[in-house]
From TrEMBL:
Signal peptide: none
Family annotation (SUPFAM superfamilies): F-box domain
PROSITE patterns hit by this protein: FBOX
Classification via InterPro entries: F-box-like_dom_sf, F-box_dom
The protein's name in its UniProt record: F-box domain-containing protein
High-level lineage: Eukaryota, Fungi, Dikarya, Basidiomycota, Agaricomycotina
């Protein structure tokens, strides 16, 4: 038995709470015990966008409207999804590991699509979509607003569903 295996679960959870989202994914892959800790600890579930925090004893719902001064963290996977405006939702996805194929793994087929899109979870957001455009050497920015709502907390897939409807 290694010295790390002798540490109490609470201590490991406290150490893991210092990790970023990406690091927590790596921690989960180390061994079955660490995966269980990351998936079952209420604070780590919030940090991995799996929970709103309602299951943390004595904490108020994170689904409530977020005060203006509170920092909202966007799920890192949102910036990695490949999607072209005007396409169907099914076209949103991730490039396959094999660079020789041009296929995407559809976002809707992946578990991450059900993760909350933000920490804390929010129920309504407006996304400004900007498109650069050039008219006779005078660049202009065309933009429009897309509203996203989910009373249970906006999920990653909700964002791309709203974009596909635009």
């Amino acid at each position: 038995m290694t010295s790390v295996q002798l540490l109490p679960v609470e201590t490991l959870a406290n150490v893991f709470s210092l990790c970023s989202y990406i690091d927590l994914l790596s921690v989960s892959a180390v061994c079955r015990v660490w995966k269980i800790i990351v998936e079952s600890d209420p604070c780590l579930r919030v940090q991995t966008f799996k929970s709103t925090g309602n299951d943390i004893e004595g904490q108020t719902s994170l689904i409530n409207p977020t005060p203006v001064h509170e920092i909202i963290q966007i799920h890192p996977v949102i910036m990695k999804v490949s999607y072209r405006m005007g396409d169907e939702l099914a076209s949103a996805g991730f490039p396959c590991e094999n660079p020789s194929t041009a296929q995407l793994r559809p976002l809707s087929d992946l578990a991450v699509s059900a993760d909350f899109a933000t920490i804390p979870a929010i129920t309504s957001m407006n996304i400004e979509v900007k498109r650069p455009s050039c008219t006779c050497c005078r660049p202009t920015i065309l933009s429009f607003i897309v509203g996203v709502q989910n009373i249970s907390g906006i999920r990653v897939l909700d964002i791309f569903s709203a974009l596909a409807k635009e």
